[in-house]
Each structure stands twice: as structure tokens, then as C-alpha cells.
Amino acid sequence: MKHIIPLLAVTITLAGCELQGGEPVTRTEIGSGSETRVALRREASACEVVIFEEVPLTQCVADPTKHNISTILTDPNGTRYRSLKTYGEALGKDATVVAFAMNGGMFESGGKPVGYYVEEGQRLEELERGDGSGNFYLKPNGVFFGTDGAWEIRTSTNFLYNVSDRPQFGTQSGPMLVIDGQLHSEIQDDGPSKIVRNGVGIDAEGRAHFVISDGALSFGQLARYFRDELKTPNALYLDGGISGLWDPVTERLDDTNGIGPLIVVTKKVSQ
């Protein structure tokens, strides 16, 4: 069972990239304009802290009636951002449109996405269906994608055979955590690998739930949270160890470096 607690009432300690109980991730601040920070504090955060099976998690909700989702990899010059901090600093005053952002999938050396990746309707990487080692290849893996507020998560095979139109955004990662309401068959109830992890799931109302652990947890715990608490029929693992969140309202900015694709949730502009 989860317990919701005030977002700022928790002292958050994140595990390091490879070792359990590593050094806390550094929190940094973007910009110094007091007017911007005051304006952000007047808004409600899209994120909240909960406790699930004695582990603190931060969950952020993207609502298609309020938000847009995009995948972002590089700046206008083609240089990969590789961190939430670098991306936020590049936005400057435009950062006020960001509801929150997370690392958005696995990558190779230099931040090149592993597998399918679409940004602004342009496919930069093709669907990866081969075999290999590591979490990405713990089949079935899956694709998080969407167009115009219709967001989905499908296994990579399902995506290949049933999605013909190119979405506005898309990122392939793995493994799937929840598949049609069932936990991934290869995920243990509470395996020995416990690090900071994040993932995304889509609920019956079409909302995207992004979850990042604020302490070390297993694959099984993260998968159960999506299935049992968030009731998402499908959920996808994004990454672990390097996982980070940027929530401008609470001024949380995990200074995790060396990441790949970013998933950025922005506020829709009122007409």
C-alpha cells in the first residue's frame, strides 16, 4: 500500500549509478530570477512523493488535457544534452513551460539511443529486435510513444505489427514491467538488484504516470507499484542508477550526468 506524504517533507537520498546506497544525487538550481521562481511556486506540482513497500517514490502525472509530451536528445546545434541540468539551462526563461522531465530510455556510449527513437515526428533510430545482454534485452521490451495527447505503451513486437503511422515522439526501452495487467514473467518478486529506477505507465484514462524511486528498490517493487497502485495495464522500465527528475515547481533537479534521451512534459498554452 502506498502512503502519500508532502513533497517537500522528505529528505531524498538516491543510490549511485552502480552501487547500492551510493552517493546522493546533487540537486542544482536553474536560473536566479526570483520572479520566475515565485511564479512556479504558485502552481501545483505535477509530482508527489509516496511511500510504497517502505521505499519513497516520486510519481508525476502527465494529463493529455493539460500537457504535451516530447522526446529530446540534442540542442539546435546537434550536441546531445546528456543531463537535465544542461537542458534546463539551455531553455532559460522558456523553462516555465516545463511541468517536469525525466531521463527517457537506454543509450549507447555518447548518449545515442538504443532502439527506436522518434523526435518531432522524425525517426532517428529504428526498432531494435535483436538479442543481447542487459535490461534492454530482457524480452519483451517495449515502446512508449504518442501523438496529439494519445499516448501508448506496447511491447516492441506489438508495436512492429500494429503501429503503421509514425508518432510525434517515441522511445524504446526495456524490459516491460507490466503487460496487459500482468507482471513481466522474468521479473522476480523482490530480486537482489536494488538501485534507483524509473519507469512510465499509461492508465485507463490515458494519463502517463512517471515514477522514479527516491531510494533503492527492485524491479519487482517498481512493477507492482504500476500494477497494484497506479492500475496501469502496461508499464515500461526506463533506466536505473542514472535516473533523474526535474520538477521546476519544487525546484528539484537531479544533476545526473551522462544520460541519453529526455522525456519532457510541458504545459499546454491556454487558448
Report on the structure:
This protein is mainly β and 271 residues long. The protein has one domain. Helix content is 13%, strand content 33%. It contains four helices and 18 strands. The chain has an eight-stranded antiparallel beta sheet with strand order 1-2-3-14-13-15-11-12, covered by helices on one side. A five-stranded antiparallel beta sheet has the order 4-18-5-16-17, with no helix packed on it. A five-stranded antiparallel beta sheet has the order 7-6-10-8-9. The longest helix has 11 residues. The radius of gyration is 17 Å and the shape is globular. About 13% of the residues have low confidence.
Can I get a quick summary?
With 271 residues, the chain is mainly beta. It is built from 4 helices and 18 strands.
Strand order of the largest sheet: 1-2-3-14-13-15-11-12
How many runs of DSSP E, i.e. beta strands? 18
Structural class: mainly beta
- Put simply, the count of helices is 4
Strand content: 25-35%
Q: N-to-C terminal Cα separation, in Å?
A: 40 Å
Radius of gyration: 17 Å
Order of helices and strands: EHEEEHEEEEEHEEEEEHEEEE
Shape descriptor reads: globular
Task: Tell me which oligomeric state these chains represent.
Answer: single chain
Helix content: 10-25%
Let me know the average pLDDT: 87
Low-pLDDT segments: 6-29, 31-40
* Biggest beta-sheet profile: 8 strands, antiparallel
Q: How many independent structural domains?
A: 1
